[in-house]
Amino acid sequence: MKKTATLTTALLATCAMVLSACSSNSTNTATNTSATTTTSDTIPIGIALAQTSNVALLGQEGFVGARMAEKYFNDQGGINGTKIKLVMQDTGGDEAGAINAFQTLINKNKVVGIVGPTLSQQAFSADPIADRAKVPVIGASNTAKGIPEIGEYVSRVSAPVSVVAPNSVKAALKQNPKIKRVAVFYAQNDAFNKSETEIFQKTVKDQGLEVVTVQQFQTTDTDFQTQATNALNSKPDLAIISGLAADGGNLVKQLRELGYKGIIIGGNGLNTPNIFSVCKALCDGVLVAQAYSPESPGEINKVFHKAYVDQYKKEPAQFSAQSFTAVQVYVEALKALDKKTKVSTMPLDKLRTELNKQLLAGKYNTPLGEISFTPAGEVIQKEFYVSQIKMDPSGTNGKFVFLK
Ligand code: 1QQ
């Protein structure tokens, strides 16, 4: 036992000095956190997002944005000549999947930091693991209250519901100043949706409107007849939905099918073109607040926007812009750190700690505009937007039109 420990220590000391001598085979143990990055010629950044389950409707856009950032920043020379390498781990849609992905990225893939997970509900379980292991996590789509407060190593580039959601209520009132009676719907099994509905309900009251009914559902539900009928009985002239993509899209559809004619606001879980295939032509008109605009000025957004449109033939989604931004924050923080001490010579535990400090201190010109962080890791962002879904009459194609 003692002998193994000594050998490991010796090996680690070598690893710390000569990065290229250490393959992942020689350092691949769950308890080993003092080894440097696993290969000499790339710096691994972990991406833990949902590629499977219902949550993939939201997570896949994150993967796309992260990949675009990897290519863009590596083409620019990476970290002062060393390329980054994204290590993708699918979290699925639940907490266990996110915990698993985090543990693999931290202990096996030996990443310098993590982008993810997709849902706040997953972050409240998985982020504490990274925090305890002193591995930086940047949330790129976690918007619930309390995410940065999970720990010292947790920050986010996805602005919280408190600053994003109220914008859509104001936009609805602009379109129909006569709105008085508001029906609120939310998924009660999801941390983000509980947080978002609180903000929506507060905003409604602050605007002098009345919440006439609050209807609850589960993110896994597909049948909303009861909730929609209950809500219609209270004669609302605005409906506000906090759900995820599939459930949210189905609720929009069923509300319209039952004859609801007023404005519908969708929260951040409906902020994806992936809902078009769920509510089809009936998605038309839904208002969704945005933390990203494809038209945002700034060089890096022009580059990101063009690359995205060239590749996917449609406007970039908010979740893609946010995960691009999260990777950018790591790249720029690593570059700044590397100028002070070559990151390839730093032991992995030291690199993770220094990287976390560095990223919180920086200012970044991103596709989201200029951002920085509070000491707690909350994003400081200036511009927010509201979009309205425009579907073609066939219901197959649609887009988010940004309101002036
Ligand atoms: C959260 C969210 C979701 C809609 C992300 C996809 O904002 O879980 O915080």
Automatic annotation (TrEMBL):
InterPro entries: BCAA_transport (IPR051010), Leu-bd (IPR028081), Peripla_BP_I (IPR028082). Residues 42-390 form the Leucine-binding protein domain. Keywords: Signal. SUPFAM superfamilies: Periplasmic binding protein-like I (SSF53822). Residues 1-21 form the signal peptide. Gene3D superfamilies: 3.40.50.2300. Pfam families: Peripla_BP_6 (PF13458). Transmembrane segments: none annotated. It comes from the Bacteria. Belongs to the leucine-binding protein family. This is ABC transporter substrate-binding protein. It comes from Aetokthonos hydrillicola Thurmond2011.
